[in-house]
Write a structure and sequence with these properties.
about 950 residues; alpha/beta; 7-stranded mixed beta sheet; 6-stranded parallel beta sheet; disordered C terminus
Length: about 950
């Protein structure tokens, strides 16, 4: 059988699922299409031509290479296809986004046929995805006196590839669609349990919201063909939770515009909105596609005569509606004056934040990528010609306030800023390009990242990136057929691209499923680093880390850069003393609760949390930074003591060496280079040349939060409050309750200790609790299942060395076996302890899941509807979040404990301790570290 007949069979299968033919990325299949196109009498010629023109993926796919080569033959007259004239061949090349297509255009533009060279040059002038080798060819030809090369470079220096694009429409007509009330998680737009299909855009699009919602959107489009559908989070924030490019892709697929007539299922420019705006990471992803993200502010807090919010019986602010955005409402966006108007032209809201000069550029160019590459290309051309680049793009916004000190994030951005005025100090609000030091790609978004890299014609990691890692943690639980098909392919691509990969394509080292955030936390070896990762929980305890969509990750890998505003910061400090029976996770919960008490609104949202937590090593401090994603913060920074930072770096060195010993380093010696970088940083701290990062004393903050440890006297639970009468209050992380609230009566169906929120200390706590209970009761019995998944293999190795793994094994009814990984997901559990493979497990929700309607108590951060547990017909699923000792005890009891039961169970156990830096400098470490 040929590849083509296999493709026809796949088409028939997809047809039965209501799907179109899958886009082609295989060059061998395209070669068969070409053979059938050239055979005038072939029965498949017409379909083959259709597939070749409209269904072949662009960029650096092998399919694109074969397609570009054939189009070159047509242009040169070496092949004749009646339906593809040389002019049409040039048009097809113009839509192929670089890589082989740019190579062909350069061949033709720099060739001997003057007429063809002129045509190729005209197309080349519209392209922006040129890399070093492409630029080098142009530069060399120019220096050799080639007139066409000079003409192309002069066009690039003027950025005509951007200036000749149509401007953004002065008026955008929209019709509203309320996707849900309250915060909308990206799980609604791109469910975690459908992660396997993300690289198949049409198939994945079927999972957005619901089939009913998709039909309603289509009906709106039919009723309003001249308008764009705006997806809304009513009384909430749009796009909270994971950083899903797939979520934006799905919204664009159903409501956006087609990017190219010759590229299937790639849509751009969606319009999304929320009463409380858009989650920071999601907003960045919207920019990747040239979309519009609006902060509606259509519901406001009702206030009394003194200006204080009026509260309802539940203690929540009463909201009143300023204007309606009910589904089907016709509105207009005035992009010139940056106003949201009703159908008659009456102003409803100022939306200036959605139309900054930079965002308007993304909209005009169709993506933020095109702007990033365009600026790079213009700079190269101007330097080659020895001229100044024509001012085209909005200049980087440089905010500098004389006499004002710098916050920690401002210091990091000043250190890593690119293309800014020399010697100028930048403050929050500046919009800059920054060097990216560390990049992380996770496995359920990695396939999209690889597609983005192919689409932007990138073939190798930027040499300016210090280290990059491709994880296997999100698909660790179940090695099913989908994972077996996707993951090895992803690992090979990323390994070839230059990343350190969890799985070796050559199988020389054991596959590692360590949680990506833990690995990134280890390979970040400088507190001045900038980190970009394909997950919202890219929140390191060293440097400043930003969770990002798969496209921004691809851009960082390809260019070693990211572009963003310098965020404002909120300073978090601590006072008082932490009670002995409390765990540090309770401090994290208390921070959210006390912040809301002190400020009323969530001052963390969209800002950097600068937490003065200097007495905790990186593993423990990560518990705080990890949670900041759920506080809706843009990022977080730990301010560390010198001694503590050195300890964290020594720990990181040890773990990187373990990776080297396993054979994970690459030919470039990336991991060895990170150890050398850590040694250099340690030497700087010890010598006093450059102490640990601290803000200036006169730095300015948006707000300050002081967490009083004396007020934390019992364990706390983050509750999704699934039955709150106000839908906007459900599934947020703002409902923090003490365990006494539940009166020891809250039934728990499943306990989960795992995810990136736990560290080695948590695993030891589980072991110590089992030992204590065994000693006092003779035997431990579980009244609810307890799933335990260590975040990394090195933690398990250390637990084995220290004797803690043995007690966990004793009580486990299941222990993972890497030689025989599970091939089916588990949704029902017995009342036993499950020792699961290192990785995300239940937190991800794409493989393992609780039974529908269960009440789950977990150490993770995910309480969104449907993520860890789905609703049943009788009961809503609940994912409550607590510390490790609370989860373990609740699984043993089958319910939440009372305070006395809890204190008794943790007596003598070394919980994760913390004391404010100013009170106990550098000594407040748990003994097991």
């Amino acid at each position: 059988m040929s590849l083509y007949t296999d493709y026809l069979q796949e088409i028939e299968t997809r047809k039965g699922e209501g799907l179109h033919p899958k886009p082609i990325d295989d060059g061998a299949l395209v070669a068969e299409l070409i053979a059938q196109i050239e055979d005038e009498g072939n029965e498949h010629r017409k379909d083959s031509l259709e597939f070749f023109v409209y269904n072949t993926l662009p960029g650096t796919t092998s399919a694109a290479g074969v397609k570009a080569a054939f189009l070159k033959k047509i242009i040169l007259g070496e092949a004749v296809v009646a339906e593809i004239t040389p002019e049409f061949a040039f048009e097809l090349l113009s839509h192929m986004k670089g890589g082989p297509s740019v190579e062909v255009l350069l061949d033709l533009a720099l060739g001997d046929d003057a007429a063809i060279a002129a045509q190729a040059a005209d197309v080349l002038k519209t392209q922006v995805f040129l890399y070093e080798a492409d630029m080098e060819r142009l530069g060399s030809a120019y220096k050799a006196g080639n007139a066409v090369a000079k003409d192309v470079l002069e066009s690039y220096a003027k950025a005509e590839f951007f200036t000749k694009l149509p401007d953004v429409d002065e008026e955008v007509k929209i019709v509203t669609y309320i996707a849900a009330e309250g915060d909308i998680s990206t799980d609604l737009l791109s469910p975690g349990n459908q992660a396997h299909s993300r690289s198949d855009r049409e198939l994945h699009g079927k999972c957005m919201i619901s089939p009913e919602a998709q039909k309603e959107i289509q009906d709106l489009q039919a009723q309003h063909p001249d308008k764009r559908v705006m997806l809304i989070a009513e009384k909430g924030t749009m796009g909270v939770g994971s950083s899903r490019m797939s979520g934006v892709n799905n919204v664009a697929l159903w409501t956006g515009k087609k990017a190219s007539p010759y590229v299937p299922f790639v849509n751009i420019a969606p319009v999304v909105a929320g009463t409380n705006g858009i989650s920071p990471i999601f907003l960045t992803t919207v920019g990747v596609t040239g979309g519009i993200g609006l902060d509606l502010k259509n519901w406001v807090k009702k206030v009394d005569a003194d200006g204080k919010p009026i509260l309802n019986n539940d203690g929540n602010p009463v909201l009143e509606q300023k204007y309606s955005v009910a589904t089907g409402t016709v509105l207009k966006i005035d992009t010139q004056n940056k106003k949201l108007l009703d159908e008659t032209g009456k102003e409803l809201a100022d939306v200036a934040s959605a139309f900054t000069p930079q965002k308007v550029e993304f909209m005009k160019a169709g993506s933020s990528y095109a702007v990033v590459f365009g600026k790079k290309l213009q700079t190269f051309a101007a330097e080659t010609l020895g001229v100044e680049p024509t001012p085209v793009y909005a200049p980087s916004k440089e905010v500098s306030i004389e006499g004002q000190g710098l916050t920690a994030v401002e210091k990091i951005f000043n250190r890593n800023a690119l293309g800014v005025t020399s010697g100028k100090t930048l403050h929050a609000g500046s919009d800059v390009r920054v060097k990216v030091n560390i990049v992380g790609s996770q496995d359920t978004t990695g396939l999209m990242t690889s597609q983005e890299l192919e689409a932007m014609a990138a073939t190798v990691i930027s040499p300016t990136v210090d280290g990059a890692y491709q994880s296997g943690c999100h698909t660790a639980s179940v090695w099913d057929k989908k994972a077996q098909a996707n993951i090895p392919r992803l690992m090979k691509f990323m390994n070839d691209f230059g990343l350190i990969t969890a799985r070796d394509p050559k199988d020389h080292y054991h596959a590692m499923t360590d949680v990506i955030h833990k690995v990134l936390n280890d390979i970040t070896v400088d507190d001045w680093d900038v980190i970009i990762g394909g997950d919202s929980h890219t929140r390191m305890s060293k440097g400043v880390a930003f969770g990002a969509d798969s496209g921004t990750v691809a851009l960082a890998l390809a260019t070693g850069e990211a572009t963003m505003p310098i965020p404002e910061s909120v300073k978090v400090t601590f006072k008082g003393k932490m009670a002995d029976h409390m765990d540090f996770r309770d401090v994290v919960h208390a921070t959210q609760a006390q912040m809301l008490q002190q400020h009323g609104d969530n001052v963390f949202q969209g800002r950097v949390i600068e937490v003065h937590i200097g007495t905790l090593l990186a593993d423990q401090a990560f518990t705080f930074t990890d949670w900041t994603a759920e506080m809706k913060a843009k990022a977080s920074i730990c301010i560390s003591n010198d001694e503590t930072l050195i300890g964290s770096l020594e720990l990181a060195k040890h773990r990187i060496q373990v990776m080297i010993d396993k054979g994970m380093d690459n030919a470039a010696g990336t991991l060895a280079g990170l150890i050398a970088k850590a040694d250099k940083r340690i030497a700087e701290i010890r010598s006093g040349e450059k102490p640990a990062l601290t803000p200036d004393a006169n730095a300015k903050y948006f707000a300050e939060v002081v967490v009083d440890l004396d007020l934390i006297d019992e364990p706390m639970i983050a509750d999704p409050d699934v039955n709150n009468a106000d839908p906007s209050r459900r599934y947020t992380h703002d409902t923090i309750r003490p365990i006494s609230y539940y009166g020891a009566e809250k039934k728990v169906d499943l306990g989960f200790v795992g995810s990136c929120m736990v560290h080695k200390g948590d695993m030891k706590i589980v072991a110590q609790m089992l030992k204590n209970l065994e000693k006092s009761q003779g035997k431990v019995e579980f009244k609810a299942p307890l799933v335990v998944a260590a975040p990394t293999y090195n933690i398990i190795d250390e637990l084995k060395e220290e004797g803690d793994w043995e007690i966990l094994q004793k009580y486990s009814g299941f222990e993972f076996d890497d030689l025989f990984p599970k091939t089916q997901n588990r949704t029902e559990y017995e009342n036993i302890l499950y020792l699961e493979r290192p990785g995300c497990n239940l937190c991800m929700g794409n493989q393992e899941k609780a039974a529908k309607g269960d009440t789950v108590l977990a150490t993770s951060t995910r309480l969104f509807q449907g993520r860890v547990v789905e609703d049943s017909a009788e009961k809503k699923g609940e994912s409550l979040l607590a510390s490790t000792p609370v989860v373990v005890l609740s699984a043993i009891l089958g319910r939440t404990p009372n305070a006395d039961e809890y204190k008794s169970a943790v007596e003598g156990i070394d919980l994760t301790k913390f004391a404010p830096p100013q009170e106990v400098p550098g000594t407040a470490r748990s003994v097991h570290f």
